[in-house]
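In the current project phase, the collection of sequences with tokenised folds has grown. A sample record is quoted in full directly below:
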Amino acid sequence: MASDPAIRPATLVDSCVLLDVITGDEQWADWSAREIAAAMDAGRVVINPIIYAEVSVGYQTIEELEELLPAADYEREPLPYLAGFAAGKAFVRYRRGGGEKRSPMPDFYIGAHAAITGYRLLTRDVRRYRTYFPTIDIIAPPQAEGETA
């Protein structure tokens, strides 16, 4: 499958996975690094402006961030407008379902981006994505399946 560029999967990498590797998280860095490498071997690896922004918080300059997330490895894509609509509708369902967090929109945008484009999503924050975007092919550690986002 990975040998035919036309059918190589694209993987959207969530900021939590990138931060695991960047910060050397004791529990998750090895798993996250292996999964990012596997995604790169399998096809395209994509980030969007929201993921980029979430990772940027810990850095003073764009040059520092660019060194950690080189564009040659992490393709930059804008958020599709359809993803914005889907994110808004998922947020409404979340609030109507009793969701109390007032600003989970970044997660909804990330999930909607993956859903609208048909990308796989590499994340450890599984529950919200599975609930509101059940069609996404999620790559997550087995122990993350029961975690809340």
Summary: The longest strand covers residues 10-13. The two ends are 32 Å apart (CA to CA). The chain is about 50% helix and 10% strand. Residues 27 and 109 are 26 Å apart (CA to CA).
